[in-house]
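Need the bound structure for 4'-deoxy-4'-aminopyridoxal-5'-phosphate, inputs here:
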Amino acid sequence: MKDDNFLNAHNARHMWHPMGHPGALQEKPPRVIKSADGSTITDLNGHSVVDGVGGLWCVNVGYSCQPIKDAIAAQVQELPYYSAFAGTTNAPAIELSYELREMFASDGMGRAFFTSGGSDAVETALRLARQYHKVRGDHGRTKFLSLKKGYHGTHFGGASVNGNNRFRINYEPLLPGCFHLPSPYPYRNPFGETDPARLAQLCAAAMVDEIEFQGADTIAAFIMEPIQGAGGVIVPHESFMGLMREICSRYGILMIADEVITGFGRTGDWSGSRHWGVQPDMMTMAKGITSGYFPFGACMVSDAVAEVFEQGDATDASIFHGYTYSAHPVGAAAALACIRESQRMAINENAAPRGTQLFEGLKALKDKHEMIGDVRGGHGLMAAVELVSDRDTKAPAAPETLTAVFNTAYEAGAMVRIGGNNLLMSPPLVITEQEITIILSALDEGLSAHGG
Ligand code: PMP
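Answer from helper R.:
Posting the output first, comments after.
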């Protein structure tokens, strides 16, 4: 490995970063994270902070999970790669498919299609949803519905159902036939409704209205995150997902739960759908499946969806979709070890009380800091504070203010994440009470230093 001077000289020079301006990053290069331990990360300057972001909502078991590291090393020795295109497979992938079926049986899931990450999983779900209807002879069902503020990755299909125009405008035209519905976001919504239960009803009515307008027999699937993550940790009323489930069933529309963030313990349950008591038709998974130790994901489908494919015509129901790294043996081995460790440590059971601690702490910060317009969380370890320049008008705080708060918080000992005018938090699920306190006091310091 080259020394620190080399790293500083070449940082962002020859590499373009996701979600950043290449020129601006050359002017102000990103922090180099050099090592990590437990829930703490250390940068090139030797500064250590509590990782309030869990990498990118993904390092659920923390950074020191030796069994995953060992499983990856052993699998690289045994079989570093082999294709899973029809004709060959590998042992860890078979075992993982069995484990996932067990783990998500109560969510109604029966089969897994493996991918290299979340965007691939979403793409898989959208394609299989269209194919499902075609196999059944329902050729007209090609459109997709999704929620504004939703995030579903950045492939063309996922970007098309994405509900944030930042991820759309530079890449249009996107997939035709994608329609976006109001999100159950009490702080800002077109109905001016602040009561979450009533808002859930209004959003459900808007969904019915859109379906009637489009024609139910033109719609393949509806995709939603059980709790919207990147869009600002938008927590719906507990009735919301069930209402959407009922509408999908009524109109023959498949429900895809995008569990890329909410899966594997983050909400306090093993899936976000289970948290709301809903069985979707498909689930997309990534992130927590390997805790980020290896790029991996899955699209799971229900037994009923599986049956349509498995008993379908040889041409129509064959899956002409897949990735070189679908069912990658090292990824599957990492996932198996990660799932075992997640269950052994019952990380979901820690997520619930620590999530409550974080949420209550953030609400206390709102009482103290005028610039916090809204605080969201309380369902496991996903939280956001929304910064405003004026509480009455809800005008979003300036991007420079968010950066300044972020930087001070980092210096004070915690990494958080900026998403729009939100500061987002999704720490490892093994985080301790003491480490949550550090995140809260670092944020307090950032907010006190830049506007109060
Ligand atoms: N869906 C959701 C809900 C996500 O949060 C993300 C990533 N943040 C994705 C899909 C895309 O996953 P990936 O970045 O692994 O492609």
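Comments: The longest helix spans residues 347-368. Residues 36 and 279 are 36 Å apart (CA to CA).
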